[in-house]
Amino acid sequence: MKYLRKALIAALVLSLLFCGCRRWNPLTSSPPYLEVNGQEVESPSLDDLEEGILGLSGGANSYVYLEPSNSIDGIWSLSATLPLEGFEDGLGYIVDACWEEDNDYRYYECRTTDQEQLLDWFRDFYRGRSAPDISGWEDVTNWYYDDYGYDDYGYDDDDGYGYDGYYDYSYDDRIAAI
Q1: What is the pLDDT, as a whole number, of residue 83?
Q2: pLDDT tier for residue 85 given thresholds of 50, 70 and 90
Q3: 53 near 79, Cβ under 8 Å?
Q4: How far apart are CA 72 and CA 130, in angstroms?
Q5: Of 40, 51, 103, 178, which sits most exposed with the smallest number of CB within 10 A?
Q6: Please, are residues 7 and 32 in contact by the beta-carbon 8 Å criterion?
Q7: Taking a C-beta distance cutoff of 8 angstroms, is the pair 61, 79 a contact?
Q8: DSSP 32
Q9: CB of 115 within 8 A of CB of 50?
């Protein structure tokens, strides 16, 4: 009976460490970076993430950006938004993923009208379980590097980030171009 009790306690502790907790686990990883509508969320919870996704409106600064402390399946970040009002095309959410292999970053995008699928992708990514399968997503890397102001050396492009970190393009420009 004594061993059974210890085994149950151990199982409970392990399940709390590795379950789908509502908050990242400080014992196993650093907190993810979460930005909702241009504002960083300190010590973000899964509720904060879900609230951000459910609150997407298609407004000028309405987006969710999630970056875990380590890449998951090669994916460094996920972001989601809706098209700007006036550009709504019925294709739903715009989801971007930043993928890295051998110090080469690629950006992929998909559209989904399935809010539950979107929430599942972000929940799994937040928890460190898995990243979405991007094999069918569109490679938009050239858009990021050529049109969005990034270059192969980081954020130092005449048309994008300058040395002072000023950002000339807005997320709206990108959404409007879609």
Answers
A1: 86
A2: confident
A3: no
A4: 6
A5: 103
A6: no
A7: no
A8: P
A9: no
